[in-house]
Amino acid sequence: MNVYQASPNHLYSEIDSEAVILDINSGTYFGLNEVSNQIWQWLQTPTAEERLVKLLLAEYEVSESQANADLQSFLQEMLNNGLIEVVNEEAVQIS
């Protein structure tokens, strides 16, 4: 089970339901739509991938397969750009 968390070296600014992240190291901006912004908020604490899918299904009208596909795409892009990191799953508190 992969557990993800937002990386700390970024500036974040929310505008309505969307947001912008500035990578301090590269000076690159990343825009987040409403759904991506919500996922970013959940990733402020270590969160398991399976938990993210459940949260998406509860929050939005989307099929499980679409939620999984979109989440995988988002997580991969965020990992590739160093905006999130995989953390040790023991860091996640069971709720």
What's the layout of helices and strands?
Blueprint: E1 3-6, E2 10-15, E3 18-23, E4 29-32, H1 34-42, E5 47-48, H2 49-59, H3 64-80, E6 84-87
Antiparallel strand pairs: 1-5, 1-6, 2-3, 3-4
Helix pairs in contact: 2-3
- Give the strand tally: 6
User: How would you describe the oligomerization state of the chains in this entry?
Assistant: single chain
Return the string of H and E elements: EEEEHEHHE
The CATH architecture comes to Alpha-Beta Complex
| Mass-distribution shape | globular
Biggest sheet features: 3 strands, antiparallel
The structural class is alpha+beta
Termini distance?
16 Å
| CATH class (first level) name | Alpha Beta
Overall average residue pLDDT: 89
Helical proportion, percent range: 25-40%
Q: Flag low-confidence runs.
A: 91-95
Question: Into how many domains do the coordinates divide?
Answer: 1
Radius of gyration equals 13 Å
Strand content: 25-35%
Q: What is the CATH topology?
A: Outer Surface Protein A, domain 3
Alpha plus pi helix count: 3
Strand order of the largest sheet: 5-1-6
